[in-house]
Amino acid sequence: MSEFWAYLQLGFSHITDPGGYDHILFVIALCAIYTINQWKQVLILVTAFTIGHSLTLALATLQVINYSTDLIELLIPVTILITAVTNLFYKVPKSLFTEHPKQAPGRYVLALVFGLIHGMGFSNYLRSLLGQESGIIKPLFAFNLGLELGQIFIVIAVLVAAFFLIELMRVRRHDWNLVVSGIVVGMALSLIIGNEYLAGLF
């Protein structure tokens, strides 16, 4: 149980670590267009992301798939950038409880596909922790559970902040989305420009 708890904590701290804020930025970008009243849409979206990153996290950690670590480190901020940019073109629905029919399916697919990329990024960290341990199924499950708890923590924080500013401070929802997504775009571009893999290509 102590090993399980240790890996659960490591998963939670990894996704919520301000020092490695790329995954935090992605979750923020996913949630920026929603309010707390749309928790069902957020749940579906986060579930799609979870399915994606859980799959590749398991496959990569078990060494079923191989990939370029440097390339993945570049693609992660690219997924952040794309998600945040799509937010800038988001049309606020007339009802808080409905999603624009033309926007929802594509957004869920993006979350799933981008989750596959983030899962490979998570596995880099997990494999470095596992070392020579013979049994990795339990640590893998615990680490993934920790990631989910951390992800939920970030989602709740974003939705509560949105509720406070939009509902209580009367900030326009459109403005909230533009400011948050614009900041994420800038930070994602910074990560891409500073990426060593990209620099090596030129």
Instruction: List low-confidence stretches.
Output: none
- Globally, the shape reads globular
Strand content: under 5%
Helix fraction?
A: over 70%
**Overall SS class:** mainly alpha
Largest sheet: none
Over the alpha carbons, how many angstroms does the gyration radius reach? 17 Å
Count of folded domains: 1
Number of helices: 8
Number of strands: 0
H/E element sequence: HHHHHHHH
Calculate the mean pLDDT score and round it.
Answer: 90
Describe this structure in words.
76% of the residues lie in helices and 0% in strands. The protein has 202 residues and is mainly alpha-helical. It has one domain. The relative contact order is 0.22. This is HupE/UreJ protein.
Brief description of this entry?
The chain has 202 residues and is an all-alpha fold. It has helices at residues 2-16, 22-31, 39-61, 69-88, 104-130, 137-168, 173-193, 196-201. The model has no long low-confidence stretch (mean pLDDT 90).
